[in-house]
Design brief:
This protein is of the alpha+beta class and 787 residues long. It has helices at 2-24, 31-57, 64-69, 76-81, 87-109, 121-141, 148-151, 180-204, 209-239, 250-275, 279-301, 318-341, 359-386, 393-416, 424-448, 453-477, 485-505, 630-634, 701-705, 727-761, 773-786; strands at residues 508-515, 520-522, 525-535, 538-550, 553-557, 560-564, 569-573, 575-578, 582-592, 602-606, 610-613, 616-624, 639-649, 652-662, 668-670, 673-674, 679-687, 693-700, 715-724. A hairpin with a 3-residue loop joins strand 8 (575-578) and strand 9 (582-592). It is globular, with a radius of gyration of 33 Å. The two termini are 55 Å apart.
């Protein structure tokens, strides 16, 4: 059933795509069918998503995808999140958002502008449905509706239904799994719309109107994708335990690159909309932004970064790998090729020579700088495809630091400059206050601890941009909130840079070993490990309580460690305390416990064999399985395994039974069996199959007592770090996103006002309506507001 739904959605999308291309060629009779089949596609894509989610929520483990990513033990929010935990589901989520966004895009493009023309509905929707058709084709190639007996024909009989699923990867078991991926794919989907408008402009050979139509969508895409990127950073910071929010991981970078290009495109399109320039650049950047989204998808989903990134998916199979390459090549060559074909028609008519001291010049320099930063990140990200290994984080930091300095200063300067030409005296006068304020605070930062010249310059630039933008934003806010959007976003980026400087460049990190109940000093805090307790509601996970004390204030921090059978290893989650101007970050590394024995104490004996160990002659006579029941072990109960041995010491022989316990997860519990006051004997391993044998350990208790390297009490090993001013990273992100949001509202209102202006000034035939001069005056006021 699920597969049939996908086939119908794919066929409907293909028919809609062909119909829209036919309409674009001049045959308007196909417009109704194009719209109708688009809605059919949307209905069936949404239905498929609902069907897949139903299978997950009702535990239909006969589907490989459901079995592979979900289980009956997961809470509802994470169970829902398993929808997009794997390759197939993530593509389905993308197709779902595309289908929904397309409904609004169709309604948006079918409206008329002030000239009575539509908003490029046919070419925009033709390209959009082509993109959607490709996504749906991937769902046919990589279906989430395969049965387990189809996926594992040699291992599973037809009709077999597993009793439970494998469950979600422990790294994904977090509230952010329910939030971050849906927002990220919303950003990816929105980024397709400016791409479609840019291609539509090239198809129509019209290069002015498309900018105002695509701008709200581009702003929305940049807003949502930027938010998603930083949400991913916050998730990594709070869960992964490596102490940061950005590691220049290739997959992290691959989503950052299209965002940077989109921001550059926004600034050039603002200039084009105002003065008519930068037509080629605006088109190119909108095309590149989405191509880089596709490139990001290829890097993440193809498995090529499996050894270079912790975020990469596994190899999806040769068919999907090949199709991702074709997908990328078609739209890259198509978009860039069409732009090259239209170059002769893209000559900008210059009415006035552009002055260096002008806003459009600053915006162009800023866009070039952003593109240079994106190129640096792209080069480092793509390096694993060229050679083995990854580029070190220092490469990105060193290469991007000068560019970041230039970006923050342009951030401030461009706001003070006027279009076409700025009066030099007035411009210099406007610099005085922000320069004084930023200089004073930079001096304070130097006194506090900044010693690196370039970092100091970056901080000065960020402060300079902040003071300029916040002053203008405050003045505009009192009159019209949406108009302050650009200034709020710029101020947020300045705050974000200040947070990055403090938290990344000037963080402190030390390794700390905390013996049980023994205080230790670290980073100016007194820390005491007081023991581990099970997490309420989940007894498989443990809080490792650490009492932290400073200046008479005491608090308890609780980093987490637990064994995961899914990843067959110990999972570690940090704990973080927000101390207003800094974060205290404790990341658990290990728990050292007193060892019963070491590797040097262990030896193997085949059944019937006799060996001399630690001056003891030991013979393995037989297995002892009196207390072992395999069925009970499978039911989740611990079982005891044993072995009978004969031990000869000083001419005396003693028969003994040594035992060990096995948990259902396969975890051993070693049991000490004393021979006398000097020796303990442990059963370490039992092998009852082809080569019956055991491993045992003989421990000399006196020798162990005098070992200088022995662990007396359980010791918690931590990485403790201080992250100064890291809250500025999150505050800056939220501020930036709010700025984008207000800018979207501003652009949407502008288009709505333009439509209202048309209704006021005409009666539908281009004639002055109703009140004549009064209506024209109203229209002129609207026009003045636009300017």
């Amino acid at each position: 059933m699920g597969q049939i739904i996908i086939y119908i959605a794919f066929a409907s999308s293909l028919i809609s795509c062909i119909s829209y291309f036919t309409v674009n060629s001049g045959k308007n009779d196909f417009l109704k069918s194009a719209r109708a089949f688009y809605h059919v596609m949307a209905v069936f894509t949404i239905s498929s998503a609902a069907f897949l989610l139903y299978n997950i929520l009702t535990h239909h483990f006969e589907y490989t995808y459901v079995w592979d990513h979900s289980s009956t033990k997961e809470p509802l929010n994470l169970l829902i999140a398993t929808f997009y935990a794997g390759q197939e589901g993530s593509f389905h989520l993308w197709a779902l958002w595309m289908s929904i966004i397309g409904i609004f895009l169709l309604a948006y493009t079918s409206k008329q502008d002030s000239t009575g023309k539509d908003r490029y509905e046919a070419p925009v929707m033709a390209i959009f449905t082509l993109l959607q058709t490709c996504l749906l084709l991937i769902l046919i190639i990589k279906s989430p509706y395969l049965f387990v007996w189809e996926s594992f024909p040699k291992d599973v009989q037809a009709g077999f239904i597993p009793p439970d699923g494998r469950g979600l990867n422990p790294l994904l078991m977090n509230i952010w799994m329910s939030i971050h991926p849906p927002i990220l794919f919303t950003g990816f989907s929105l980024m397709s719309v400016p791409f479609c408008f840019a291609i539509a402009a090239l198809i129509k050979n019209e290069y002015d109107r498309w900018v105002k139509f695509s701008m709200p969508w581009l702003l929305s895409a940049a807003m949502v994708l930027g938010l998603a990127i930083m949400m991913g950073g916050y998730w990594a910071y709070g869960v992964l335990g490596w102490g940061g929010y950005w590691a220049w991981d290739p997959v992290e970078n691959s989503s950052l690159i299209p965002w940077i290009i989109a921001v550059a495109a926004i600034h050039l399109m603002v200039s084009q909309n105002k003065l008519g320039g930068f037509k080629k650049s605006s088109l190119l950047l909108c095309i590149l932004a989405y191509i880089l989204v596709l490139y990001s998808t290829f890097l993440t989903r193809s498995g090529v970064l499996g050894d270079a990134s912790v975020h990469s998916f596994v190899d999806p199979g040769q068919e999907v790998y090949l199709f991702l390459i074709i997908f990328l090549v078609i739209f890259t060559s198509g978009g860039i090729g069409l732009l090259i074909f239209r170059l002769k028609n893209l000559k900008t008519v210059k009415t006035e020579h552009t002055k260096v001291l002008s806003r459009e010049s600053a915006l162009f320099i800023g866009a070039i700088t952003l593109c240079a930063a994106a190129l640096v990140v792209l080069a480092g990200t793509s390096w694993p495809l060229i050679a083995k290994g990854t580029v070190d984080a220092s490469f990105y930091n060193k290469m991007n630091l000068p560019l970041a300095i230039l970006i923050v200063f342009i951030n401030g300067l461009s706001i003070l400059l006027r279009w076409k030409h700025s009066d030099e005296k007035q411009f210099l006068k406007s610099l005085i206050t922000p320069l004084i304020l930023s200089s004073l605070l930079t001096i304070l930062f130097v006194v506090i601890g900044i010693r690196d010249f370039l970092i100091g310059l970056l901080a000065a630039g960020a402060l300079f941009a902040f003071f300029i933008n916040i002053e203008i934003a405050y003045n505009v806010l009192r009159k019209n909130l949406p108009k302050a959007g650009a200034y709020i976003a710029h101020a947020g980026i300045a705050v974000l840079f200040l947070g990055i400087i403090g938290s990344a460049r000037y963080s402190k990190e030390v390794d700390v070993s905390l013996p049980f109940n023994e205080p230790r000093e670290a980073l100016g805090f007194k820390m005491t490990y007081t023991g581990a307790v099970p997490i309420p509601g989940d007894t498989t996970k443990y809080y490792f309580n650490v009492d932290v004390e400073k200046d008479g204030r005491k608090m308890t921090m609780q980093p987490v460690m637990y064994y995961s059978s899914y990843s067959e290893g110990v999972m570690k989650n940090p704990d973080i305390k927000d101390l207003v101007v800094k974060d205290l970050y404790l990341s658990p590394q290990a728990l050292d416990v007193p060892e019963d024995f070491s590797e040097k104490d262990v030896d193997s004996l085949v059944k019937g064999e006799t060996k001399t160990l630690k001056n003891l002659k030991i013979k393995f006579t037989d297995f002892n399985m009196d207390s072992f029941n395999r069925d009970e072990l499978m039911k989740g109960k611990s079982q005891t395994m044993g072995a009978d041995i004969e031990v000869s010491d000083s001419g005396k022989t003693k028969k003994m039974t040594i035992k060990m316990k096995y948990s259902p997860e396969g975890e051993p519990d070693y049991i000490a069996v004393p021979l006398n006051d000097k020796y303990n004997i442990y059963l370490v391993k039992v092998s009852v199959m082809a080569d019956p044998s055991i491993q045992l350990a003989v421990v000399d208790k006196i020798e162990k007592m005098n070992d200088p390297n022995k662990v007396e009490v359980p010791t918690l090993v931590l990485k403790a770090s201080i992250k100064p001013y890291i809250d500025l990273v999150w505050i800056g992100t939220v501020t930036m996103v709010l700025g984008f949001f207000f800018s979207v509202i501003k652009r949407a209102r502008r288009l709505k006002s333009e439509a209202g202006k048309k209704e006021v000034l005409t009666n539908g035939k281009g004639n002055v309506s109703g009140n004549g001069k009064a209506e024209i005056k109203k229209g002129e006021k609207i026009k003045e507001a636009f300017l």
